[in-house]
Amino acid sequence: MAQILAPSTQWQMRISKSSPNASPITSNMWSSLLWKQNKKVSPTSSAKFRVMAIKSDNSIINRLEGLLNLDITPFTDKIIAEYIWIGGTGIDVRSKSRTISKPVEHPSELPKWNYDGSSTGQAPGDDSEVILYPQAIFKDPFRGGNNILVICDSYTPQGEPIPTNKRHRAAEIFSNPKVQAEVPWYGIEQEYTLLQTNVKWPLGWPVGGYPGPQGPYYCSAGADKSFGRDISDAHYKACLYAGINISGTNGEVMPGQWEYQVGPSVGIEAGDHIWASRYILERITEQAGVVLSLDPKPIEGDWNGAGCHTNYSTKSMREDGGFEVIKKAILNLSLRHKDHISAYGEGNERRLTGKHETASINTFSWGVANRGCSIRVGRDTEKNGKGYLEDRRPASSMDPYVVTSLLAETTLLWEPTLEAEALAAQKLALKV
C-alpha cells in the first residue's frame, strides 16, 4: 500500500540516478514531504516520481517550483482571479482563471464571466453559455499575493438562475427581514474520506483488504492509525490564509476519514465558506495525489459514514428562554422531516441506518447529548436554558446553501397548523 502525500505527476521532475545531492523540497512548499514507496511499483516508474530538488554547488535548481512560488506583486498591479462555481452534479466544483487589472476588495468590483455549460452538464450544446456572477472573494493560498478565489453562482444569459444554482434561493431566504432579525448562526462539520488514487480505496487501508476494527483511529496519532494528517493540516492553514472561518479539524472514526469545522458563520456566508473550503481541499488533494470523496457511505459494512452535521441557532435561541425556542424549532423540523431528508444529500439512505452514530432516515428523533438522534441538543444548552441545536442528518455531500437556508425557512418562516403542532408536540414529548 502506498501512502501518497506528495505532489501529483503534473509537478514532477525526474531525478537522475547520478545526482548524489538530491534532496526533498523545502518544507515551506505546498506539497507534503511524507510518502511511502509501494514496493510493488518499480521506483523507476515515471507515474510514481515525486518532486525532488537537485542541488548544484551553489543553489537548489527547481525552475517549476520557482515559477509556481513567484510573487508577481512587485512587478504588476494585475492579479489572478480564480472563478469557482458548482457543476452539473451539484457537488463538483469547477474553476478557471482570468487576469484582473488591479486588486479588488469586493465581488461587485469583478466582471461577470461565462463558461461552456454543455461541458458541465448545465446547458445544451446549441445554447451553452452560462453566466458567472461573482458573489464572495477569498485570498488565494496557492498563488499568494493579491490573487483571489472567487465564489460564483450561475445564470442564463437572460439573468435567470440555472437549476443547480442553489445560492440564489438561499440568498432570498436569508434576505427576508424576519430571518435577518434572528441573525442565524451556523457551525458546519464537514467530514470527508481520502482515497488512494489508482484503487479508490481509503488511504491507509491495505489494497483490497481492511484495517483493524474502528476504535483506535478517532483523533489518533501514529503511523498505524492516522492517515493523511499532512493533507488535513495543509488544508487547515490554507483556509485560515484564505479568510475562511475554519474553527478546527480532527481525525474521524473510520481510518482515512477526516473532519473540519467552519463557523460560526452568519446566513449565506456559511455556504460560501464551505464551498471555498471544499475547493481548497480538492486542490490540495490534487497536489498530494490523493482522491477526495464526499460519499456519505464510502465503505459498506461496519464502518462509519461521512456526514456534514450542521449546528444552528438564532438570536432568540441564544438568549434567555432560548431552550423553549429550540424545542419549537425541533417541532417544526419534525413536521418537515421528509422535506429535509430529500434535500440533505444523495446517497444519504446508505448512511442514515440507525447505526454508527446516526438516526434512521425514516424516523425523526431528538435528544440531549444523543448522537443517535436526528437532532442533538448539547448538555450545556439544556443546563443554560439557551444555545443551539445540531442537525445530524445532512450527508457529507450536502449543498450547504440548501441545508442552511432550509433550516432557516423551516424554523423561522414556515408555520404548521395548530393540529399538526399539537400532535407533533405530543409525539416528541415537547412542551412548547
From TrEMBL:
SMART domains: Gln-synt_C. It comes from the Eukaryota. It is found in: Plastid, Chloroplast. Its EC number is 6.3.1.2. GO terms for cellular component: chloroplast. One of its GO terms (molecular function) is ATP binding. Residues 79-159 form the GS beta-grasp domain. It catalyses: L-glutamate + NH4(+) + ATP = L-glutamine + ADP + phosphate + H(+). Keywords: ATP-binding, Chloroplast, Ligase, Nitrogen fixation, Nucleotide-binding, Plastid, Transit peptide. It is an enzyme of class 6 (ligase). Residues 163-432 form the GS catalytic domain. One of its GO terms (biological process) is glutamine biosynthetic process. Its main location: plastid. Homooctamer. Belongs to the glutamine synthetase family. PANTHER family: GLUTAMINE SYNTHETASE, GLUTAMINE SYNTHETASE, CHLOROPLASTIC_MITOCHONDRIAL. This is Glutamine synthetase. It comes from Glycine max. The lineage of its organism: Eukaryota, Viridiplantae, Streptophyta, Embryophyta, Tracheophyta.
